[in-house]
Amino acid sequence: MAENEDAFLDEDEGIIELEDEEGNVTRFEFVDRTEINGVVYYALIPADYDEEEGAAEFVVLKETEIDGESMLATIDDDAEYNEVGEVFLQRFSELPELDVEDLEKLDGVEE
Hints:
Layout: E1 6-10, E2 15-19, E3 25-36, E4 39-46, E5 59-66, E6 69-73, H1 78-93, H2 100-107
Antiparallel strand pairs: 1-2, 2-3, 3-4, 4-5, 5-6
């Protein structure tokens, strides 16, 4: 991906469309967001991944401001990318996993 991509977020679907410098648009699903040392980072997965093929690899982008406009950009520094990726992996590992029985129990809950 190119540096400094334009981002469009469809909040209803949790989909972010990124346009690179060559005009190519790629759709990603928002997974998580965190702030580290004053910088906001996003974890995204390709919107077209197939869940049956297993877990999708996630992409980490950081929020930058150019000419007063927020943009998402790739992280060029390997150490920074690895550090942020580890933070997201830790956060993901702490999420509870729901199985089919848990989902069925939730469907039976009345409000």
